[in-house]
Amino acid sequence: MAVCIAVIAKENYPLYIRSVPTESELKFHYTVHTSLDVVDEKISAMGKALVDQRDLYLGLLYPTEDYKVYGYVTNSKVKFVMVVDSSNTALRDNEIRSMFRKLHNSYTDIMCNPFYNPGDRIHSRAFDNMVTSMMMQVC
Amino acid sequence: FFLQIMELCGATRLGYFGRSQFYIALKLVAVAQSGLPLRVESLNTVKDLPLPRFVVSKNEQESRHTALYSSDADNPASYSGVIPPPPGRIQVKKGSVSHDAVQQRTSTDQQESTSPVVSPQQSPPTSPHTWRKHNRHPSGGNNDRPLAGPGPFWAPFSEAQPGPSTTSDPIWSGHSPPPHQENWVSFADTPPTSALLAMHPASVQDQTTVRTVASATTANEIRRQSSSYDDPWKITDEQRQYYVNQFKTIQPDLNGFIPGSAAKEFFTKSKLPILELSHIWELSDFDKDGALTLDEFCAAFHLVVARKNGYDLPEKLPESLMPKLIDLEDSAEAGEQTGEVGYASSPAEAPPSKSPSMPSLNQTWPELNQSSEQWETFSERSSSSQTLTQFDSNIAPADPDTAIVHPVPIRMTPSKIHMQEMELKRTGSDHANPTSPLLVKPPDLPEENKMSSSVKYTAGNTVTDGYSSSDSYTSDPEQIGSTITRQRSHYLSECVSLAGQQQTGVVAYPPAVPPRPQPSQGPGPHVHRPVDAEGLIAHTSTSPQQIPEQPNFADFSQFEAFAVSGVNKDDDDEIETHSESLQVEKSSDSASSLRVAKADGRVEDKAPANVPTSTGKGTTPLAPPPKPIRRRLKSEDELRPEAEEHTQKTGVIAAVLASQPSIPRSVGKDKKAIQASIRRNKETNTVLARLNSELQQQLKDVLEERISLEVQLEQLRPFSHL
């Protein structure tokens, strides 16, 4: 039940960003942008252990009073950032992980599409459907 | 003019604008345009009939759509609606390119070709047009053909026309068939009605094969169209055949994949926007492997064709386009290809050889998981060195369902495997010869050998008999050993019979057997080695391993080392050394002397039966290591070997077992083998328990002997001290 989901490319530009309450979309964009610093920080911190058993799931990046930001990075430095509402029943870590796993799977499906050039904005309908299913149902 | 055309083409007669009628109407239009008198015969006589010039402008067609919509009334109205647009298109003729192409075509084409040339252009409008007609006639009323529907079709048609016309222009100059195909595809892709699709194949055939306006065919198609309204996304046989052909141009192997890059080029030629192509790919690449199988390719092609004809892409892959779910082993897939006629211009899309599907994470994970599970299972079930997993020709999973299916390894039951291995080894290394005589040699063995189906029970019985007989031989370790040997041989033979394999006396017991008997084979074995060797050779492995208590375990470890090395001769040496060591272990001098004699005898015996013993040695050494693995093996052999325990036998048997190479196991027999092995294991347990008690008694006897000997020695000592 995320509020905002974003896929950031390796060069830190967004490939896909979508928020549920579209009115505060800008705010979420900004949140995601700032959380990228935290993501990079975590990535560099893990650099010591190298890529041996690097956990793709970064966990809670940044909690605020309103929401929490979770991060997930792939081996190709593509980052998934998810903003969830704090007021929401505290989502278990496993749920977040599963959501990221689904994101990752959908992302790889997009990658397999030969018509998709890596680095393009993601326009896949399947991906959209999947993200919609994960978004919070805001009445 | 138009009315004349209508009459000529018989549209009024049929009451609707069938394809044939449409074709004829268009031809007549062309005739009229060229200024020739409108006569039916003019169609057939005019050779260089210029193609009716149709407007390619989208706007005009769209305007026509509205006009058509408004004119949606009855047939005459619809016809009039139909007729005006084409002539309008003709008048608005636009695109010198198309005109040039038309002229080019006309110049190059014969009359027959003109009709096909015309028909392709006709077909796009025809298809949506007719489709609309049929769509509006679900009730079957062919009279009413409101053209309300045609609106959207005209729009896609306009798209399709520029597409095909432009793309076909250069193509047509080079290849006449492709354009036809392309047009065919463009209109053939109107999926809504299977009848319509049926029409397409006919038209394709017309274009590609006969190149003649098969009015009869089209009439049939029309009839078919009106009769059935199938799944709009269904691919007709002709379409499928076309798709298959297209697939072949890219990938000669129908069972292979089209890599993403090749498919991308191919579909890009359809001039659809990349976004739509991307969506089509997402829909059609069912297993998300980045490559298209035949089914996927057909689905994708079909979707492209549909899209070109203006049908929106579905959100989900239609059922009729779903790739067939085939077993992984069966890589053959239905030859469904969404033939993209438009791209057929350059069939030189030779794929860079069949490339294995690029597994995506999604696909590989479940597959790998399953495969790993199966592998684990195999490793558990099969002795480490004895499992040969055979996989059917398994191509990377292309079907969604098959993605989860694993290659089915073919395994044989352990017992059978071992037996076969034993047999193979025996035969290979002249074991068969010695084994047979060996089998014959021990008279006792054959007697007790009960090759009955209920091996387990018989084994138990034989073991019991052996035990009873061994009791009488308690005082004589040799005899006991021989008894046990016989038991083992019986057990082995029974195991063989259980396995149902007629092996020449070589019982291939699962590796589990050797380990257990090996340790159990203690001091006794040496003495009985000669005899055991014979029986062991015949039965190998199992019995020696069935003696867990035997102190020869340590020696067997030596054998194991040798067995690992796989040197038969070493095994022989091992056995000899083993016997010697055993002799050393034996405390009783008499026993040791006996053993020495036996060892010699055994060596001698082993000389002729070198190979068998070596094999036995090989198995013996292997017994301990694979013991844990073999324990998991649930085969009859496991039960059997435990019943008989003699180090000698275990040594030989172990050697023999060691010689057993990995044998493929059949998955199908696993379950049965498991159950059978469970029973056998239980029986073996009981047998081993008895054997254990027997050996305990033997040990006591030996100890008593030792004590008595020591007492004698001490009695003699005082004399020496003196």
TrEMBL record, chain A:
Belongs to the TRAPP small subunits family. Sedlin subfamily. Keywords: Cytoplasm, Endoplasmic reticulum, ER-Golgi transport, Golgi apparatus, Transport. It comes from Nothocercus julius. It comes from the Eukaryota. GO terms for biological process: endoplasmic reticulum to Golgi vesicle-mediated transport. The keyword Repeat does not apply. This is Trafficking protein particle complex subunit 2-like protein. SUPFAM superfamilies: SNARE-like. Pfam families: Sedlin_N. One of its GO terms (cellular component) is endoplasmic reticulum. InterPro entries: Longin-like_dom_sf, Sedlin, TRAPPC2L. The keyword Transport applies.
UniProtKB/TrEMBL annotation, chain B:
It holds the Pfam family EH. InterPro entries: EF-hand-dom_pair, EF_Hand_1_Ca_BS, EF_hand_dom, EH_dom. One of its GO terms (biological process) is endocytosis. CDD domains: EH (cd00052). Gene3D superfamilies: EF-hand (1.10.238.10). Keywords: Calcium, Coiled coil, Metal-binding, Phosphoprotein, Repeat. GO terms for cellular component: cytoplasm; plasma membrane. Residues 597-607, 634-648 have a biased composition (Basic and acidic residues). Residues 239-323 form the EH domain. Residues 681-712 form a coiled coil. Residues 101-112, 361-387, 580-593 have a biased composition (Polar residues). Residues 272-307 form the EF-hand domain. GO terms for molecular function: calcium ion binding. Residues 60-183, 334-387, 426-453, 571-651 are annotated as: Disordered. This is REPS1 protein. It comes from Nothocercus nigrocapillus.
